[in-house]
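Entry: Heat shock protein Hsp20
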Amino acid sequence: MATRFDPFQEMDRLLGQMFAADRASATMPMDLYRSGDHYVLHVDLPGVDPGTIDVNVEDRTLTIRAQRTSRTEQDVQWLAKERPVGTYARQLTVGRGLALDAISATYTDGVLTLSIPVAEEAKPRRIEVQHGEQTAQIGSSADTTA
């Protein structure tokens, strides 16, 4: 039985594996939603040392950095090494109306959770509407002064 060897298919497979590992190391999957008067951001960071997580805000840019180090085992022959290592980084540009000085962060079970409150000045407010009689009195007093 003859087998067919396609060098281009094999090259494509090898390059796909190599670039898939690079893409995986560069991404930080996230979920973002609004709950009441704050936004919640969940970022997957499995295997990251909590001491390496850095969250900061400069101007309107939220930056998240974390690092996962490689396991250095002695006298080990790796059969597969697909888990990405290195520094993760993600930047988000946030809009106005958020209380960036009141962000809280927790890291549990490989998930970084940020809670970003809506600023007081951006929260919806109820505006009282004047009734017709009060509006008419305001209009008539303006006519008498003119």
